[in-house]
Write a structure and sequence with these properties.
The chain is α/β, with parallel strands linked by helices. It has 12 helices and 12 strands. It has 2 domains: about 170 residues, Aldehyde Dehydrogenase, Chain A, domain 1; about 140 residues, Aldehyde Dehydrogenase, Chain A, domain 2 (3-Layer(aba) Sandwich), CATH 3.40.309.10. The strands form 2 sheets. A 7-stranded mixed β-sheet has the order 8-9-10-7-6-11-12, with helices on both faces.
Length: about 350
């Protein structure tokens, strides 16, 4: 893109950012009513997602992000997008990348999160009418030049079969983990609660497992996250908590329980909802080696330790606040688009 068009795009996106952080009446109503369509999308969760998207669209951040890339004025490509719907506006970044790169987005939205993304893009069109013919929502992808698809490990095989012959990014299940040293402050452990409970733990950037030093005492963690106990007021979360608790009790599985989170020793990375798995380690070198082996299953790592791992390492409380350049699965979407 030219310097002039980049400047124009940044200006438009900054205005969009303002509209997301200060919602108009229609967006405010959407934030309050999304839970009627998807019970997980509570007003608090939707507001968090909308505000985070808006905050990312500031001039300094956008300039820093886009200065890395160079797009020519070649014929726009049609990019098929299959969006996830596990947390509000989770597919917005992919759409943004396609539009900024000068391509056309063919959007297969998730039924779980179709209303928000449509309204946010309408706000963009209201700011700059030239975006109106740069995207369309479709029920079935066809006539695409490349595909970016996000789904589960099962759907990824389906995606590979149908889209393997065109340039593609296909994302599978990933989870995020925390690596604790035992020296964390109460404040750091409290912030870890955000990484565990934001969006009720439904995101790939939510912490589903903790690596802890041998003999770790969970009392300090439980005390630090007590203020997040309101998650148990959500009926679907509470149903998951009750179900998993009953399974562990029936099977006599050793676990810890603070009334709204179950903590169980398990080698798997992906824990059930309302459960945090943990695994003990003897030394940091060994656990870093293990994390490197499992890097293709990990989205990000929450830790204060100085880690030498291929995955993104973030501070406590920051896992669900990715920057524009913190790409899902570590695959640079903008670079992918610029190479088409």
């Amino acid at each position: 893109m030219s310097v002039q068009s980049k400047s124009s795009i940044i200006n438009t996106l900054v205005q969009l950012g303002h509209q997301l952080t200060s919602p108009d009446e229609t967006l405010a109503r959407l934030i309050q009513t999304e839970s009627h369509h998807n019970a997980w999308f509570t007003p608090e969760s939707v507001e968090q997602a909308v505000t985070a998207a808006g905050a990312a669209l500031n001039e300094n951040t956008l300039t820093q992000w886009l200065d890395k890339y160079h797009f020519t004025d070649s014929e726009p490509k049609k990019i098929g997008l299959i969006l996830a719907g596990n947390i509000p506006l989770v597919g917005f970044h992919d759409v943004l990348c396609v539009l900024i790169s000068g391509n056309i987005a063919l959007i297969k939205a998730s039924s779980q999160d179709a209303r928000l993304i449509k309204y946010v893009l309408q706000l963009l069109v209201n700011l700059d009418g030239s975006f109106a013919d740069k995207f369309q929502f479709v029920e079935r992808l066809q006539g695409f030049d490349a595909v970016i698809a996000t789904g589960s490990n099962n759907t990824s095989r389906y995606f590979e079969y149908y889209f393997g012959k065109v340039p593609h990014i296909i994302r599978k299940n990933r989870n995020s983990i925390a690596l604790l040293t035992g020296n964390e402050t109460t404040e750091q452990l409290h912030e870890l609660g955000k990484d565990i409970f934001a969006y009720y733990g439904l995101g790939c950037r939510n912490v589903s497992k903790a690596f802890v030093p041998k003999g770790y005492n969970f009392v300090s963690l439980f005390e630090a996250i007590e203020s997040y106990n309101e998650v148990a007021n959500h009926h679907k979360y509470h149903n998951n908590y009750d179900y998993n608790k009953s399974i562990y009790l029936v099977n006599s599985d050793k676990h810890y329980d603070n009334g709204f989170l179950l903590v169980k020793q398990d080698e798997r990375l992906a824990s059930p909802l309302a459960v945090l798995f943990y695994e003990e380690y003897d030394n940091l070198q060994a656990v870093q080696a293990k994390l490197t082996e499992q890097s293709d299953q990990i989205q990000c790592i929450v830790s204060a330790a100085d880690l030498k791992v291929p995955n993104q390492v973030v501070s406590f409380g920051q896992s669900q606040q990715p920057a524009l350049w913190d790409y899902a699965d570590g695959v640079d979407t903008m670079q992918f688009l610029s190479n088409l």
